[in-house]
């Protein structure tokens, strides 16, 4: 494969520097790629896609005909993160997750941060995912965000920024594991000479974390389950994958019943007690007694059982308050407040439309900014200014004026790119990175995470529902010691 | 000795049971079609009406008559293999088996899932009747795909409670299919003065045996083809894996494994119903069965097995006494219409 025609087009490229020379961490990989014939790479790519389909690594598409399954397109060229940079990212994530957890616990207890005037009270009270039902709840170990999938991006300035925290029910980790597996099976030669930090221990760490939050009344080997909305949920594959890799039951709401504030599952031998639930259902649908009364996916009485300390829930209900994009803008302040130091990882500068001056600026610069609804995810409810039509901008302007609290705006980031196989040759495509962080007895960060790539030329939207794909993410081992942390 | 004592969700047990039944059903239909295709080649044109009994065996005679009219090779194969409106067609069985497998991927082995999924994808890729020259191979491949699944299952899945639900589904379905084919064919083939001793007589009986992959094994044991021998072999043989007795005895063993260590008396109604069926088959005499009417005998056996099926599902799957809320299909619609992402 020829690399000399590859253009970075003025963007930050993860594998090449600005003058088109391979970055040190990418040198070996690019040499291997260069030595391969085009047909060989194409065959590997096709084999990978066929494997994905055969393995049933698919997601369901909503709005499509019922039950449509698609593979999440996979690109063979990995993203490489050098050891030192990763260690710095990891420190930043630990600091951030710790502060966010402190914040959530504070919000549902003393609200010191509000009383001290660091964050305006009305911002919290108007957050869609703020749950007054959770006030006073003491989750085991005071942990509220057990599994986080922080979205990171690198801008044209070379700096890494946190785009979103994704505290509620982050998905995608199954692709991290499957992508690595796929790389090893279809493209083993590229690992040659490199020491890539493994990701296989994630399910084991996840299970250990879930067991560590079991109620005291649980036995030595607590009964842990994954709760799914069912086969037609878009992330069903992942729910099933994680249950399988942890060797624990995958349950639906109808499999569970609450009696005397205790949760049971219906088994062939009658009711069996459940101690810990890794729930992959949003708060809204968790318990019709507490949240949406029309939910048939959840379990009546579940939150009361949780409140009574008879069952642990991961993630903790109510933690989505910190996913609000207005509250996101205050995370650096939170870090200074709870951690007593400056944030290691930077936020993207954010305009809050409920502030008059910010709103005026946003309305006047819609063609340059990215506007986001404060409580949407997955690339929904978003305007990418430079790629928008006049009609779309007008529409968003109206929405902002009608409900300024629900909109924020950020500068359009020139997301970094990674070489990607397009029609048999390499072209740069924009990427983001979602590391996964587990918080139980301690905080553990999965090395790397999910690199999502916008496969459409020029596109900045990496979501699977909007034409995104993914890549394997290699965090290299520490060159000094040659070992993993 | 260490048992896997982990609790098994009732819903999961149910899905595994149905997954196994659908695979077994698909395999049987593929085999019937293959055998009938070959039978056709051996018969003079005037006698080539072998397709109606195939529809009768599937139990969907009315549905077929309504939508297709006269049975021809093309219409019957379409109906039994490719018609997605026929819930018992191969394509429907594979789809249902896969849906069930997909809902229990965490319980079955990865290899089992991959096999079902690839059979399904293969069927999706070739949704219509192959050209005549490919017909036999196509149905042979489907049959072998199902056999692979059985082999993969036995070799890769722990033989735990979930496995016994699977085997129960497989064996009850198989007993049912053997009973149906014998019931339908026996009366068509009752020796008529004209045919006895002609080569056609043998061809037909051989086809019945081939329909359950039993021709070769029958020969080893009985030699000559006789109606009595075929009935004895397909109903009462203890060792042939598709004889009704064998299937029922295997079902009984799996049911025992599910109900737990044997006590003095069976604790579950399903066991109380199944045990006497086994005993009865063990002592049965083939001449008495034929003398008092094979059809009546098979009918009674089928009804008795249905009762076992119903009571066992009540005891281990629906457990109506434990239900505190009614569950309905509407859950699915809520799931798809209100959940956007997670």
Largest interface, Cβ cutoff 8 Å: A-B, 51 and 41 residues
Roughly what percent helix of chain A? 25-40%
Radius of gyration of chain B: 21 Å
Computed Rg of chain A: 23 Å
Separation, N- and C-terminal Cα atoms of chain B:
42 Å
SS element count, helices of chain A: 14
Strand content of chain B: under 5%
Number of strands of chain A: 24
Kindly report the average pLDDT value of chain B: 84
Q: Could you say which overall geometry of chain B the principal axes of the C-alpha atoms support?
A: globular
CA-based shape of chain A: globular
Compute the number of helices of chain B: 16
Give the overall pLDDT of chain A as a whole number.
Answer: 92
Number of domains of chain B: 2
Q: List low-confidence stretches of chain A.
A: none
Oligomer: heterodimer
Largest sheet of chain A: 5 strands, mixed
What does this structure look like?
The complex is a heterodimer of chains A (485) and B (342). With 485 residues, chain A is of the alpha+beta class. Chain A has two domains: 24-348 and 413-475, no CATH class; 349-412, Dna Ligase, domain 1 (2-Layer Sandwich), CATH 3.30.1490.270. Chain A is 29% helix and 22% strand. Chain A contains 14 helices and 24 strands. In chain A, the strands form seven sheets. A five-stranded mixed β-sheet of chain A has the order 3-24-23-20-19. In chain A, strands 8-7-12-13 form a four-stranded parallel β-sheet. With 342 residues, chain B is mostly helical. Chain B has two domains: 9-157, no CATH class; 168-317, no CATH class. Helix content of chain B is 71%, strand content 0%. Chain B contains 16 helices and no strands. Chain B has helices at residues 10-42, 51-58, 61-68, 73-82, 90-102, 110-125, 132-156, 161-188, 199-211, 215-222, 227-236, 244-259, 269-283, 286-292, 294-318, 330-338. The chains are: A alpha+beta (485), B mainly alpha (342). Chains A and B meet through helix 2, helix 8, strand 8, strand 10 and strand 11 of A and helix 1, helix 6 and helix 16 of B.
